[in-house]
Automatic annotation (TrEMBL), chain A:
Gene Ontology CC terms, in alphabetical order: ATP-binding cassette (ABC) transporter complex
Entries under InterPro entries matching the protein: AA_ABC_transptr_permease_3TM (IPR010065), ArtM/GltK/GlnP/TcyL/YhdX-like (IPR043429), MetI-like (IPR000515), MetI-like_sf (IPR035906)
Family annotation (CDD domains): TM_PBP2
All residue ranges annotated as the ABC transmembrane type-1 domain in the record: 29-223
Its membrane topology: Multi-pass membrane protein
Protein's name in the database: Amino acid ABC transporter permease
One GO BP: amino acid transport
Transmembrane segments: 33-55, 67-88, 204-226
Region annotation (Disordered) ranges: 233-263
Compositional bias of kind Basic and acidic residues: 233-244
Gene Ontology terms, MF aspect: transmembrane transporter activity
Organism of origin: Terrabacter aerolatus
UniProtKB/TrEMBL annotation, chain B:
GO cellular component, one term: plasma membrane
GO terms of molecular function: ABC-type amino acid transporter activity; ATP binding; ATP hydrolysis activity
Family label: Belongs to the ABC transporter superfamily.
InterPro entries, per the entry: AAA+_ATPase (IPR003593), ABC_ATPase_HisP-typ (IPR030679), ABC_transporter-like_ATP-bd (IPR003439), ABC_transporter-like_CS (IPR017871), MetN_ABC_transporter-like (IPR050086), P-loop_NTPase (IPR027417)
Protein name per its UniProtKB record: ABC transporter ATP-binding protein
Keyword Signal set for record: no
Organism for this UniProt entry: Terrabacter aerolatus
Amino acid sequence: MDILTTLRETFFDLDAMRAALPDLLRVGLPNTLLLALTSAVIGTVLGMLLAVCGLSHRRWLRWPARVFTDIFRGLPAAVTILLIGVGLSPVGLQVWGPNPYPLGILALSLIASAYIGEIFRSGIQSVDDGQLEAARALGFSRPSGMGLVVIPQGVRRVLPALVNQFIALVKESSLVYFLGLLASQRDLFRIGQDAAANSGNQSALVLAGLFYLLITVPLTHVVNAVDRRLRDGRRADGAARPDDPDGGVRPSDAPLAPAQEAR
Amino acid sequence: MTTTSQSGTEASAAVGGVAVSTRDVHLAFGSNQVLRGVDLDVPAATTACVIGPSGSGKSTLLRIVNRLLEPDRGDVLLDGRSVLNDNPDALRQRVGMVFQHFNLFPHKTVRANVTLGLTRLRGLSKDDAAERAEHHLERVGLAHKADVRPGNLSGGQQQRVAIARALAMEPEVMLFDEATSALDPELVKGVLATMADLASEGMTMLVVTHEMGFARSVAQQVLFMDHGRVVESGEPDRVFETPGTDRLRRFLSQVL
């Protein structure tokens, strides 16, 4: 009973949580979201670039992409963040002043792009060769065929894996605390940890953890929903109906279809 | 299964086949000599069927004609003019191709499959492209499937959409690469009927096929290929009734 009380007070002290809540909500949450979102966007763009270069027939495009991927996928995230955030900080200081965020975001983006590039690459590679051949037979150049036909299909197939990567990014964003954050720059983790260190009570950190779950758990459900939709999406917009001898749908039965029309 | 003979008069305006020839075409993949000097002449508005065992180079020959593969040696002529120095993308807009496995774009509707090349390559407006797609889907009897994804169509329907997609580009030549080989037997007829209609409308067609009945009734010329060469060619009746080589006799005894 005694131990249980101690545990409850250590991890679930409501007063300690209440004290940390305003900072977590007003400072930590926006900062974590800012870090994760911007590096997700940059990482996705860079990742697509890496995937396309990695699949290129030109060795001078393929090679740098492979080396880049090996490095940033192979290094521990903490090492990358420190090397870039601290190592480049003299440059950063001149460009945007003593703010660790740009370099933190850069480091997170580079790490994410290495993983996302591999995800895109595997998706694009899984598309049947006949698709590009058919596009080229119509008169499309190889790049247009890739862009209009192959890549859109490849990306669809790896959307679940992509969302998983975004989840990892939300968690990894906590590592920017290595770079030293001003009070207003602290993310969820740092605020929770500071409060825990000051009070000797872990409850604020538990609350910070709950905030992370609040972001990541819905994302996992997005993964599942996307996965489900992709799995039976092809049925869902044109399921065979018993009253249709052709086994398809009439135009009026497919409200989603026109939106998918080529632009 | 709908056939499209009734639409012939309206559609014939779009069909204007030109002659196709190859001269001494060679191609090797590494040490594997796939084509060893192929000469071919398909006069304008006629159909030539290419038959032969698998691995004989039939599909490779088709891909040389629209330069999905470049020959190591030899020439390809459209309408009497060499096309090997043309822009390959522009050439492929003049040569339609239909594949064994249809290769429709599964993430796009049937209509979008047909309009993609029209809007992006031919510069048609979205409405004009949709109208032309409608016309060509009507021709293959599938206009009512325009809003459906290819995955919801039978193989035969998919292949007819693929034919419509190629025809919408208004090609001067059509290449068919075993267009019915992947189809269930009961679906073959509809696709062959569509192809026969197209031939009768004056398209120049080069057809790689295992359908000897089609070769016999539709083609003006049958070419038998083996080991990268045209071993024997001629009018279908002659080729099928009085094969001049042992190799063709053996092949025919296996497939007929």
